[in-house]
Structures are given as C-alpha cells and as structure tokens.
Amino acid sequence: MTTPLQPGWYDDPQDPNAQRYWDGQDWTPQRQRKPTSRPTPPPPPVMPTRSPVMPTQSPVTPAQPLPPPPGMPAQPPAVALGAQQQNLPNSHLVWAVFSIFFCLPFGILAIINATKVSNLWALGQYPEAHAAADSARKFAIWATIAWVVWAGGLFLFGVVLPLLFGLSLLGTDTTSTP
Amino acid sequence: VTAKARAAVACRLSEPAAVATLAACGCAAVWLGDPTVPGGPLPVCPTKALLGIDCPGCGSLRMLYWLLHGDLWAAVRFNALGLVAVVLLVWAYVAWTYGRLAGRRVWSWQHSPRSAPVALVLVLVWFLVRNLGFGPFPALYV
Fold first, then answer.
1. How close A116 comes to chain B (CA, Å)?
2. Contact residues, B window 48-67, toward A, CB-based 8 Å cutoff
3. What pLDDT score was predicted for residue A77?
C-alpha cells in the first residue's frame, strides 16, 4: 500500500457504498455504486452489527488501497493507514436520531457529532472522525440513560408510591404528569 | 436446509429480534398507558417539564399512540418530524435485518453523507418553530 495509485475506481472515502474514480492525481466527479460481488474478498462492512455472526469474514484486509481524500496533497497517495482507518466509521446516526425522542440536549449533541464524522473523514482527519463517532454514540447512550432515569423516577413518585401510600387519594393523581 | 444453516440464520436474527421485542414492549406501553390523557403513568418530557418549552421530541408518545390506532392525521399533528423519524428508523431496521440475513451490507439512508447534516438542520428548525409564539406556529406546540 505504499505505491502510488494507478487510475481506477476506488472506495469513496465520503460514501462507504460508492466508488469514485481516481485519475492518478486526484478524485474526479465520477461516482458509481459499489459492485455487489467482488473478485476479491470484501472488506468487513461498517455495519452496526460486527458480531461473531459471520466468522468467515476475513479481518481487515481491504481489497483496494484507500487513496487520500480530496483536500489532501495529491502527490503522495502512499498512505499507510492503520487497519481501523480503512473504512468510514459508523457515525451512529440512527441511534442519534432515535435519541432525539428522549427530549434532551444529548440527542442534539449526538447528531452534531454524527455530522462531523464524514466531514472529518473527508478532510483526512481519521482519528478525529473516529472520536466524533464515539462521541455520537456516547451522547446517544447518555440521552437514553437520562430518559430512563427520569421516567423511572416519575413512575416511582407519580405512580408506585401513590399506589402504595395513597390509595385514598385517587382523585388527586393529576399532579404527577402535567 | 441443514440444521447448521438454520442455526446460523437464527443467530443472525437474534439481535433484530431483540430490537423488535423492545419496540413491541414500548408500543404496548404507549397503547396501554394512553399518553393522550394527562396524568397517566407515562412520563412527560423532561425538557417540557423543567423548561416549559417543546423539544424536538415532544409529543412523540401521543404521536405513537395515534399511529398505533391508525389515526395518521393526529399523529402528524402531535409530532410530524417524529413521524418522519419513525419511518426512517423502520427503514434502517429493515435494511439492517435484511443485511444480516443476506450477509452483506444493505444501503440505508444513514449511509448517505448528507443525512446527518440534514437531520441536524431539520431537528433545530423543528425545535425553533414549535416554540414560536406568533402566526401559525402556536398550532405546532403540543
């Protein structure tokens, strides 16, 4: 992976499902969908489901070298990327969108960090892209935990304790949730 | 189909099945808890309870309740953007489940580089317009 790249189709650093044409110097605007079947073993998907379900898949052995993204000096595409930097990290966008339902600023922070991932990746800032992806996940988790704590507390004080101690106060339970 | 292949399929579907079970439990809680009547057992949103403003997710329980009861218009009225999010989440779930079955990556909306910024803008705009106190906007307050 230390030789200059020949012109050809390579994985698009901005879109994990696409390929983009590299003219030997720079990216061209031409994009295409990744072929569904490849002659070489496919790289591990960036699916959110990297569990030991498909043990036959090879570890990170990319089929093609990853050219530098646009914005980087086009001269030396001789980039020896770490194994984890080959694929655009999962930005956890689905979970971030889901965490919006939990009504907390964490949900918005999760989406903001998910937004950063592909931008940082396109700029070649791979560790930062991974950090943003981790932050998106972290904030989505926090949003979920915060809501569970909130809902559990309301349920405890609004429903369980009144039931235990105040069965005679049935008429006044409208104070629990406005 | 050998027993081994069946076991592999069952293994691949275990996580989607767990997610579906959780979602079904949530829907059952919303159905039984009836968030359309104030004072029920379902919690009010913390942002609304503490600050008195609508957050982008406010009204989602009522939206889900009416969606489960087949009243699409009422669902739109309580959280239109939340309804869009539900559609997207179902889409992502189906793509994820199918991808696990097929053993390959299936394209879904979250893989587009534009999805995250669009989602961010929509959420922020929705957050703003629901809390504007003039013109047609108070109709969006739930």
1. 8
2. 48-49, 55-58, 60
3. 39
Q: Measure A73 CA to nearest chain B CA, in Å.
A: 22
pLDDT at position A1? 41
The pLDDT of residue A13 is 74
Q: CB A130: neighbour CB atoms within 10 A? A: 18
Contact yes or no for A112/B120 (Cβ under 8 A): yes
Amino acid code (one letter) for A16: P
Residues ≥6 apart with Cβ < 8 Å to A90 = A46, A47, A48, A133
Shortest Cα distance from B118 to chain A (angstroms)? Answer: 9
Residues of B in contact with A107 (CB under 8 A): 56-57, 123
Q: Least CB-CB distance to A177: which of B40, B82, B111?
A: B40
Using a CB-CB cut-off of 8 Å, the residues of chain B touching A94 are 88-89, 92, 110
What pLDDT, in 10s, does the model give residues B117-129?
Answer: 999 999 999 999 9
Q: State the Cα–Cα distance between residues A8 and A150, nearest whole angstrom.
A: 54
Distance of CA A93 to the CA centre of its chain: 6
ipTM: 0.87
pLDDT of residue B43: 86
Taking residues A87-98, report their average pLDDT. 89
Q: Annotate B43-98 with three-state secondary structure.
A: CCCHHHHHHCCCCCCCCHHHHHHHHHCCCHHHHHHHHHHHHHHHHHHHHHHHHHHH
pLDDT tens string A140-176? 999 999 999 998 888 888 778 888 887 655 555 444 4
3-state secondary structure of A72: strand
Choosing among B107, B110, B118, B124, which should be mutated to test the A contact, i.e. which has the most A CBs within 10 A? B110
